[in-house]
Design brief:
Layout lengths: L3 H10 L3 E5 L6 H11 L4 E5 L9 E4 L5 H8 L7 H8 L2 H8 L6 E2 L8 E4 L21 E3 L3 E5 L6 E4 L2 E6 L2 E5 L5 H12 L3 E8 L3 H7 L8 H9 L4 E4 L6 E3 L4 E15 L14 E13 L4 E3 L11 H18 L5 E6 L8 E6 L6 H11 L1 H4 L5 E6 L7 H11 L2 H4 E8 L15 E8 L18 H10 L1 H4 L1
Parallel strand pairs: 1-2, 3-16, 4-12, 18-19, 19-21
Antiparallel strand pairs: 2-3, 5-15, 6-9, 7-8, 7-11, 9-10, 10-15, 11-14, 12-13, 14-15, 17-18, 20-21
The structure holds flavin mononucleotide.
Flavin mononucleotide (FMN) binds next to β8, α6 and α7.
């Protein structure tokens, strides 16, 4: 695996990188990113951002199509979603199992240490932190970042992507949903009455972003999981202040402590649901003790918004594969496909297709898809289970199945008291503890009379081809 600069070179070689000079950090970078994301355009590298050093750059739109997502995962011969899904199928379980063979590789130095500011020298305001959307409550330095935390009991290191809003030269607020492993680690320090060490990499090879966004089981190190994908251990340097590992090739990193005596206003922030749902709230501050960066650092931006947005494609594809593998790992037979739909902000609408084998099979697949590790600790809403003649990626087919094969009085089950968070736009602000619900819609043919279920009115592909070939002037 190359570093971010190697990745950029390859993407430029594919003709899929555009350089933008002079766009403002205040809204213009965000607007261009939004327009470009909705067109699934090139990766955008912003430089000469007014008010900031030339060379202090921001990258967005890193993985808007199958080619760039596949390249990031190390597959250079893939051009379509279908190819990528079949290449990845079955691999996630292997990555999980192989992860312990790829412990982080500690280095005494790395490119990230080219420039270093500690203590009084720290000035976060020197780095371009876009205000991404018109109603954001501040400037977000961290969107496509990875945030390293430690479990104080086991010493295990976790990383995830969590938004970071700049407060002042030395303070930045961290917004983590309560079920995320990073939040669990930080709460453990809070319970002990100790400050929580936190390190952040703000620019890195986009493979980090893929891994950070995945619901990797608690206890498996994301660094090791990433090593398993890349086929080699991740080189890291230890943060001088916290001792936490930081990717040695990171563009730009910081470290410090959350001390829990300093909570500041954070948000609102335009989120992946398509709303500014969680409003403005108090979030813990990281007191930044050190900043490290390469010459001319690149911040990897990944701003969400109304879908499709900067990372909804990556999220939909990776989560679909992870949940399918999770169902297979749990031994649910004949799961043919799982697809999360970007149109619903990914998490809110998933379709599972199965070949029904026994009574209760469809409900089992639906309930498990709603609550398996890869899905449960994120927002969720609808799980639709369809037969294997329905393509779960095709919403027209899925809606036909819901409309014709589900009977509302008996085919919709509600799971209550499931995980939710303040990001869910359906709940008015109710304080800190959130429960949500899931609906499992069984849109499969009723299993008890499946053999007698009305036949589908549909000609075969061969029959259709016969008339197309016979009357080419009509069908050309
Ligand atoms: C670009 C991006 C931004 C994200 N922002 C946040 C965030 O602000 N807060 C949060 O809790 N999760 C956020 N997530 C989701 C988490 O990173 C993701 O759920 C991850 O699996 C959590 O990891 P953890 O359970 O190991 O903490 C974001 C994901 C991506 C890809």
């Amino acid at each position: 695996m190359e570093d971010l600069r190697g990745w950029l070179k390859e993407v430029e070689g594919l003709g899929q990188l555009k350089r933008v000079k002079g766009a403002e950090a205040n809204l213009e970078i965000g607007l261009m990113t939004e327009v470009n994301g909705q067109r699934r355009g090139a990766a955008l590298l912003f430089d000469e951002i007014p008010g900031f050093h030339k060379g202090f750059r921001v990258l967005t739109g890193s993985m808007l199509n199958a080619k760039r997502l596949a390249l990031t995962l190390g597959y250079r011969d893939i051009d379509s979603d279908q190819q990528l899904v079949s290449r990845l199928q079955g691999k996630m379980i292997g990555f999980e199992q192989a992860a312990p063979q790829y412990p982080i590789q500690e280095r005494s130095t790395g490119a990230v240490l080219q420039n270093r500011q500690v203590g009084a020298e720290v000035d976060l305001l020197k780095f371009p932190a876009p205000k991404w959307h018109a109603h954001d409550g501040g400037n977000y330095l961290g969107t496509g970042c990875i945030v390293m935390t430690k479990d104080p009991d086991s010493g295990r290191i976790n990383f995830g992507s969590y938004r970071l809003m700049v407060q002042d030269e030395k303070s930045i607020t961290l917004h983590i949903s309560s079920a995320h492993h990073g939040a669990i680690n930080i709460r453990k320090y809070q319970d002990r009455g100790e400050p929580a060490p936190v390190a952040v990499s703000l620019g890195h090879h986009p493979l980090y972003l893929i891994v950070a966004s995945m619901g990797i089981p608690y206890g498996i190190s994301e660094f090791e999981y990433l090593g398993a994908i890349a086929g080699k251990s991740v080189p890291v340097v230890r943060g001088e202040m916290t001792g936490l590992p930081i990717p040695a090739a990171s563009e730009f990193a910081l470290e410090g402590f959350c001390s829990f005596d300093d909570f500041r206003d954070e948000g609102p922030f335009g989120e992946y649901t398509g709303y500014y749902a969680s409003g403005r709230g108090k979030e813990p501050v990281i007191n930044v003790r050190a900043v490290y960066h390469r010459d001319d650092p690149i911040n990897l931006g990944a701003p969400p918004g109304r879908p499709p947005h900067d990372y909804s494609y990556v999220n939909a594809l990776m989560k679909s594969i992870s949940v399918k593998e999770s169902l297979m790992k749990d031994g649910i037979p004949d799961v043919k496909g799982v697809w999360y739909h970007e149109a619903a902000g990914v998490n809110f609408f998933v379709v599972v297709s199965i070949r029904q084998r026994f009574p209760g099979h469809a409900r089992q697949a639906g309930f498990m898809a709603a609550q398996c590790q890869a899905a449960a600790n994120h927002l969720g809403r609808y799980v639709v289970v369809v037969d294997d003649d329905i393509d779960p990626t095709d919403l027209n087919e899925v809606i036909w199945a819901i409309g014709t094969r589900s009977n509302p009085e008996k085919d919709i089950d509600i799971m209550r008291n499931s995980y939710s968070s303040p990001l869910d736009p359906i709940y008015p602000d109710q304080g800190k503890i959130f429960f949500g619900s899931r609906a499992v819609i069984d849109a499969c043919k009723p299993y008890d009379w499946i053999r007698d279920f009305p036949k589908v009115v549909q000609s075969s592909q061969e029959e259709k081809q016969q008339v197309i070939d016979k009357w080419p002037e009509i069908f050309k």
